[in-house]
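forwarding from the other thread:

> can someone predict this with pyridoxal-5'-phosphate?

sure thing
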Amino acid sequence: MRKVYLDHSATTPVRPEVLEAMLPYLKENFGNPSSIHSFGREAKKALEEARERVAGLIGARPEEITFTSGGTEADNLAIIGTAYANADKGRHIITSSIEHHAALDSAQFLLRHGFKVTFLPVTPEGLVRVEDVAAAITDETILISIMHVNNEVGTIQPIKEIGRLAREKGIIFHTDAVQSVGKIPVNVDDLGVDLLTASSHKIYGPKGVGCLYIRKGTRIQPQLHGGGQERKRRPGTENLPGIVGFGKAAELAGKELEEEAARLARLRDKLIDGVLERIPEVQLNGHRTLRVPHNANFSFRYVEGESILLSLDMHGIAASSGSACTSGSLDPSHVLLAMGIPHEVAHGSVRMTLGKDNTEEDIDYVLEVLPGIIERLRAMSPLYQRRASN
Ligand SMILES: *Cc1c(COP(=O)(O)O)cnc(C)c1O
């Protein structure tokens, strides 16, 4: 059976070049970067080279990159670390209602620990309004955290405009850029961010490694205590094979970005147009144009997203409903609900996220099998029967 992986926002495979780059650091180059002997020096060199590569992808200076165990840890460090380091100036934080749970739950944690948090609403297309951010700012505001690209619906937020506002008011600005780094151009100065989260396994690197960009001069309180690694911001012996892999993945993503983004946008548009043409009573979720090249998210009326996923899986197609982190729970996505999509419609949602190995033929195959799946599920759906007999 044909296998089509359309869940690249959940994770991506490690590219062969990345694995190749990592292997020596799992074998002969096993040294600890903090050791002074030749083994340690070799490791240290690889660590700093990876740092340069990751910094290069986002227009940062190497010393502004702090490696972490992934996007989740970087979001926690950015939000909780900033809050505690700057609590003397104020205890108010602004974020959005459509953040990834790593950011959302960090903000919830602060809410339970004496901070005030504003969770901004979004438009029906999933966009944060800059004027809402401006209106939420008080004398107490110390941090604004708004994601660059939403992981479920792929909308690209007006980060540059929010960055300008934050700079004007002297407020620290964090963006979770896990879904934009390596997919669309990301430059920390252009965006005007002080803190930026990235993750390796979303760009064909290994899992369990990511980074937080920390602009020089930004106050942040470490969340782990121990050795002096990562300029004391994130102690613990470095995950060197992972970091080297992340560095290689970042380098390749930067080189291929322009061409790959254009290719994926063509495939995405073919998928979106094909689904909307072939299937009745379906909507595209998220903005049609302010959207990353790799994301399509649909709601099919009168059917359950989970049933669609199971049927797709039987045809070798891997997609997801909402984000991987909330699948398994029966609650509809907090992102779709925040966009004002009714519960029953949100329940019929499927996210398809494209990647490097997807081809034109993959999209043809999806467009061939999906209409039949929806038709069959609707034929069994009491909701659809009731609607049809009305
Ligand atoms: C995947 C993801 C994360 C979490 O990153 P991990 O490296 O898996 O911890 C955070 N934010 C967004 C937007 C993501 O898509």
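The longest strand covers residues 295-300. thats all i got for now
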